[in-house]
What we know:
This protein is an alpha+beta fold and about 325 residues long. It is built from 6 helices and 10 strands; from the N terminus they run βββαββααβββαββαα. Strand 1 (about 45) and strand 2 form a beta hairpin.
Amino acid sequence: MAPGRARRPAVxxxxxxxxxxPEYDPDCPFCPGNEKETPPEAYRLPGEDVGADGxxxxxxxxxxxxxxSVAGAVSHPxxxxxxxxxxxxxxxxxxxxxxxxxxxxxxxxxMLSVLRAYRARFAAAAADPRVKHVVIFRNQGNxxxxxxxxxxxxxxxxxxxxxxxxxxxxxxxxxRGAGGHALLFDIVQDExxxxxxxxxxxxxxxSFVPFAPNHEFEMWLAPRFVPPRFDRVDDDTxxxxxxxxxxxxxxxxxxxxxxxxxxVLHTPPLHENAETILPWYVQxxxxxxxxxxxxxxxxxxxxxxxxxxxxxxxxGD
Length: 317
């Protein structure tokens, strides 16, 4: 914690202005009528009252993937290097036909449609024998590195378990072995009881600022119970999850002047019944600052806003 760094002198930088988007952009490959501009669909949720060719959600392989279904040969120069093919699945989930909609303006049934698509594509990735871990993420705005403004998320099905996920799973297993519940579940219960970092809570979900955030005004949205693996979650839970997610994103808009953001749906690896030890949850990251030499050089994050203060502001206190 270094709150004094908020008083550093700085040269003013021009802010990236978010232009008002039209309802329809003829040059946008995600807009209706331009479906042939994307790879063939892997999933479509038909729309209501939008004509025979209408849809609510479309999913297709990413045209510029970070992971490919078939990778070429990999060379291993020297004695100290090792590499593997970047195989897996990388999909785009277009959340609405409208070019200008925001998730915070989605109705309950629209949010549910998006989360049903998440669930269906998670299930498809989990059934792929190559995939060992699935992550779903959303980039909103230029500072979040969104390539197109049309509302969309992405799914990555990895042929490996990331090191950070493996470490979290091991810590969670140790906690469970020491007589606790799932570690995240106990963290959520502690945040609800203490209230000082709590932002919002309902009967199934809680949002809070983590005790040691990696980003200014970072929020976690987590279940209050250990849910099934994401592809086995029922519609009622998805509906309440969508409402809680929309409320959390609305707090960014209202309390932080609508920043660009990323969110990541973290899920456990697809093995060893990991979901009973490490429940899925969402990490929401407003793009309010960038890492500088201190953080990059030694790997220690600097926070200028205490998590308790950040939670109070997000609550609107």
